[in-house]
Amino acid sequence: MTKPLTPEQKRANQVASMLEEFRHIDYGKALGKTQKTLQELARISRANEDGSVRCVCCWKLVIWNGGNCHGGHYIPREITGPTIDPINVWPCCVTCNKWLGGNLGAFRMFLAAEIGLTRLKELEARRREYKKWTLEELVEKRVAWMEEIRHHRKRLN
Ligand SMILES: [Zn+2]
Question: From the CA of 96, how far away is ligand 1's center (Å)?
């Protein structure tokens, strides 16, 4: 009988296999997968017990995984530094995120109240922060976020 893996061993295996995967795909794809995981975490982590979550811009209730809820970026997703910083990614409805171009005025008011003006200004100072993440950094963050997502999935079940 082989012993069951400890959580640490499972995590180490997950890190190793994701790193292997990321080494075989484009950097852009690896970053994209990491962004998507953070966007999922942004949506699910703020969902109520019934799966509903408020758009941080217009305060409308949407279902976290219903397709009408995006992980919206305050600093545009294309800016590679803050693109995978949780402070920059929040649940937004499709109307605000897509049709209203991010609804940034309302987004800004929400952030000012939520994180405070000092941190908001620090975030806004990163508008040109382009960063090439190492694959190890991407994997480290993504594995941690996937773990959090698993906890939230259990919470909502
Ligand atoms: Zn909205």
Answer: 4
